[in-house]
Amino acid sequence: MPRHMFRPFLIALIIAIVVYVFKDVENIKVSPDERFLLLTAHPDDECMFFGPTVLALSFQTEALFSLTVSNGNNDGIGLSREPELRSSLAILGIPSERSFLLNHPLLQDNFTETWDAKVIAEAISPYIVSQKISTILTFDRHGVSSHPNHYSLYFGAQYLLASAPVGKRRLRAYALVTDPVLLKYSGWTTSLSKLLVPRISSNESIHSSGLPTLQFWSGLPSYVIAVRAMYQHRSQLIWFRWLYVLSSRYMWHNKWIEIEPGVGAR
Question: Which residue, among 136, 125, 72, has the nearest Cα to 103 in the 3D structure?
Fold first, then answer.
């Protein structure tokens, strides 16, 4: 290559890479028969942890529902957080008629309390049946942040799967994989991995455990939407949450692994 052409070529290459890395990608195509329930513990979980998945699904289907178990009343401001939750979900593509707040007396926001798996299963079962849900999306056994309310939902989903069939459809559940700390706070740099595995986001794959996995990515446009959703939670906008929004891998990428039925004993 002539020397005088090297700099323009390099600039063009860098621009192409940046555009590719930060654009919204084509995520997994979902079946029109699938009906999804996002099962979260508190207001703001939906945008802090599940943004890439919620946005990818809401762009494709109206059969996406949200069930938030508590109103986040640990600091006594639960009533203020309820409209914040509705506004955030609406921005993410889940309108109020498809979002539900459980606020069960035995499932209240508490950083030191593990919720009972059987109580969770019994509380969410009516929503599974009434909305004809086929797939639950929730936290894994580590809860991303090790919050006991988060990982309690994993064991609640396990318990539900192990119970008698809900309705007439086969129910499946997927858990959001908790990444190691260094990956968890890799922020936008996680998008660089698309250069190494450019089409992995479009396919179902198999985990080393033999269980199916799914992946969803956000580009810069979807990231901005998730930040807008987070901004609706004005009661929670303290400095470390902004640091999280800037540094979290979960704002850009979600990996899921299928949950096996179990007794949910934790």
Answer: 72
Question: Can you tell me the distance from the alpha carbon of 259 to that of 77, in angstroms, rounded to the nearest whole number?
Answer: 33
Any idea which of 128-132, 135-139, 205-209 has the lowest mean pLDDT?
205-209
Helix (H) or strand (E) holding 12: helix 3-22
- Return the closest-CA partner of residue 137 out of 58, 36, 215: 36
> DSSP letter string over 146-166?
--HHHHHHHHHHHHHHHSS--
- Which class for 1: exposed (0-12), middle (13-18), buried (19 or more C-beta within 10 A)? exposed
Amino acid letter for position 99? S
The token pair that represents 84 in the structure block: 């914040």
Q: What angle do CA 46, 173, 105 make, to 5 degrees?
A: 60
Kindly report the pTM of this predicted structure.
0.86
